[in-house]
Amino acid sequence: MKLKQISIFLENKKGRLWKALSILKDKGINIRALSIADTSEFGILRLIISEPQKAKEALEESNFVVKINEVIAVEVSDEPGGLEGILEILNKEDINVEYIYAFVEKNEDKAIVVLRTEDIDAGIKALEDGGATIISCEEVYKL
Asked: What is the model's pTM?
């Protein structure tokens, strides 16, 4: 149950973030989750969206550098310690988490954590074996 994520490399200049999001809006692509990391020169905008390939093509037409990668979406209790339990499962299996971000479901007491591990398949197996609930693409897009 791998989830497709797009990463957009943005020059750290006025209007670049707006331009990327404007392109997605114009194509009717909904954003389910996002994260942005920046340096003084550029940023990486990571998005979980409804149509990753369509978004990649539209953004590349406007000279954005875009990459599609696989990530894992896992359900966690929206309470103290919810995330720690997920990370404990991965730590016990010696699986490194490269990055992580989250979003909260609209009508539930759960959060969805998006994470990237060095080995996606090993991460999924460890989480499933540890009793975590992995969320499919279809479930993320309909939340």
From this structure: 0.86
Structure tokens at 12: 């750290």
Question: What six digits make up the tokens of 94?
Answer: 């010696």
Alpha carbon of residue 37 to chain centroid: 13
Q: Are 43 and 37 in contact (CB under 8 A)?
A: yes
Is the pLDDT at 143 greater than 60? The verdict is: no
Angstrom distances, CA of residue 30 to CA of 12, 46, 49, 140: 23, 13, 6, 11
Is 3-69 CATH 3.30.70.360? no
Q: Which two structure tokens, joined as six digits, stand for 104?
A: 């909260």
CATH superfamily of 71-142: VC0802-like (3.30.2130.10)
Q: How far, in Å, CA of 138 to CA of 80, rounded?
A: 27
Reported as a pLDDT band with limits 50, 70 and 90, residue 62 is: very high
